[in-house]
Amino acid sequence: MSKTKVIAFANNKGGSGKTTTCSNVGCAMAMQGKKVLLIDGDMQMNLTLSFFDEEEALAFSESGKNIYTALKEEKDLTDFIVPTKYDGLDVIPSTSLMSSIEFDLFTKWQREVVLKKCLAPVLARGIYDYVLIDAPPTLGGWVMNVMVASDFVIIPVEASPWGLFGLANIFDFVGHVKNIAPRLEILGIAITKADERKNYLKQTIETLQETEGVHLFGTYIRVDSAVEWAQDNSQPVVAYKKTSRSATEYTALAKEIMDNVNR
Ligand SMILES: Nc1ncnc2c1ncn2[C@@H]1O[C@H](COP(=O)(O)OP(=O)(O)O)[C@@H](O)[C@H]1O
Ligand SMILES: [Mg+2]
């Protein structure tokens, strides 16, 4: 079997669609027969809540079956994997304790590679085609860990007036990470929450197309209320409402990502 591809979904801007894109792309990949592990790297636990209800999510926090416990104790991530109800799709849940991860990492030996080391045994077993990591809206030591452990970064960008503001920061940050992880690649920018009635969608697309060194995915994710209904039901929209516009778009984006990664 080919090597597992590790992809981070990152953008320091909150609400840019990272979690929704990560959960739906992952679920779409699994629905196409791939083996996928999703890692929730955000204290807001939104990725975890995309598959489990609040009670189940809190149980993962209390039992220690979460990314925070694994990192703090520097354990093999294999023991923290939880299956979802979808075939081929597993999750490592987050917990609100992730709010102190920066502090916990600070005193660790080789603090930029803690996640990479914890993930290594999972990759060595070679059962996953893809590991997708949902990053929090920050650019610090923890997101550094997320990127160092990844082969690719995907940057979801909201098609809004301020969606592009601050994008230079993440490009600079990836540049710094490359000092430690030279093979890290920005796979592309995914436009999310696009509303075709708004002029700034066209403007956002044009600006990104003109930006040198930026690959813009051809699939745009448009605003769709089915996304929120799905989240309310602890399900990704690709599984909750397969016929919805957004389900079709996330499925197309997943295909595009797999094609780009395996080029
Ligand atoms: N395609 C979409 N259509 C409608 N709402 C969306 C869509 N994508 C994301 N959202 C909503 O936008 C908000 C932010 O999305 P989220 O994925 O949580 O962003 P981030 O993880 O970057 O903070 C959420 O409330 C989510 O439900
Ligand atoms: Mg999020």
Topology:
Elements: E1 5-9, H1 18-31, E2 36-40, H2 46-49, H3 54-63, H4 67-72, E3 82-83, E4 89-92, H5 101-106, H6 114-125, E5 130-134, H7 141-148, E6 152-158, H8 167-177, E7 185-192, H9 199-210, H10 225-232, H11 237-240, H12 245-261
Parallel strand pairs: 1-5, 1-6, 2-4, 2-5, 6-7
Antiparallel strand pairs: 3-4
Bound molecules: adenosine-5'-diphosphate and magnesium ion (MG).
What's this, in brief?
With 263 residues, the chain is α/β, with parallel strands linked by helices.
End-to-end distance: 16 Å
Present as ligands are: adenosine-5'-diphosphate, magnesium ion
Figure out the total of helices. Answer: 12
Radius of gyration: 17 Å
CATH class equals Alpha Beta
Give the full name of the CATH homologous superfamily.
Answer: P-loop containing nucleotide triphosphate hydrolases
Question: Which topology does CATH recognise?
Answer: Rossmann fold
Largest sheet properties: 7 strands, mixed
Structural class category: alpha/beta
What sequence of helices (H) and strands (E) makes up the elements? EHEHHHEEHHEHEHEHHHH
